[in-house]
Amino acid sequence: MITYNSASARPSLAEFVSAAKLWRVWLHMGLQDVKSRFRSSALGPAWILINLAAVIGAVGLIYGRLFHQPMNEFLPFLTLGIVIWTFISSSLVEGSMAFIAAEGYIKQFPFPKTIYLYRAIVPYTIVFAIGLVVFFVCMALYKRPVGPGALWAVPGFILFVIINFFHIVIVAHVGVRFRDLPHLLGSLIQIAFYLTPVIFTGTMLKERGLDFVYMFNPLYYLIEIVRYPLLNSDAPPMEVVYVALGYCVVAGIIATLVVRKMSQRIVYVL
Fold it and tell me: Is 246 a residue whose pLDDT tops 60?
């Protein structure tokens, strides 16, 4: 077993690698987190699929007509937008509780603390995968083809997961020290939702001279790095790739600084 003195050691790249090798542990924990949400439920995690399909159906029908959008284009767009946004918002809001939720484990077991950061991202990935099922059903219902170019979403999703892992690293460390962080982030995410092309397209904003709303919004590029290939079966525009890569570098640097500054104090603060 890999041992780790979480009270005194400062995590480095080696510790993150060591924690990644314990994938059976954090994967099991993450799966149990999903199951615990639906304990004693007859349908279990299937409620994720049902709730997502209901929300997308209701919102899609209303906003599709409100924005005068063809449903065969708008509904798949909306589906991916909501699914990807849920991943982003969860990594920021729920991710800030990653260490707090694992307080008992941290104090009792010699695992690297970073294992609980990997654990946190498992439920978000499962919800995303279920959301993709809804998306492909939408595409099939409207007989929209998904070509080989959609595979560009794979490297896009890998980059997307890395960025959101950096989100979790940052907010999990800060959240231990500032317990109001989840509430603050929840409020900011609600505001950001209405400033990001999730339920409306970038074209709508551009036609009204509001393209600056998404052009200077980094979350738009995080969504498009995955959504564009799946919708268009083509590689995302290079400006989307460049901004997403740049955002990844900045988030990685901030995550590194936060870990170096705050990691040693986590056990004492908990």
Answer: yes
What would the pLDDT profile of 89-101 be if each residue is shown by its tens digit? 999 999 999 999 8
Q: What tens digit of pLDDT does each residue of 11-20 get?
A: 567 778 888 8
Chain centroid to CA 182: 15
Who's near 251: CB < 8 A, 6+ residues apart?
Answer: 163, 166, 167, 170
Q: What is the pLDDT of residue 3?
A: 41
Phi-psi region of 143 (alpha: psi -120 to 50; beta: other; left: phi over 0): left
* Assigned token pair, 167: 């989100």
What lies within 8 Å, CB to CB, of 116 at 6+ separation is: 26, 29, 98, 99, 101, 102, 105, 106, 172
Contacts of 259 (CB under 8 A, 6+ apart): 10, 11, 169, 173
pTM: 0.89
Over range 24-52, report the average pLDDT. Answer: 81
Q: Which residue ranges make up each domain of the chain? A: 13-33+43-261
Rounded Cα gap, residues 41 and 98, in angstroms: 25
Tell me how far apart the alpha carbons of residues 89 and 190 are, in angstroms, rounded to a whole number: 9
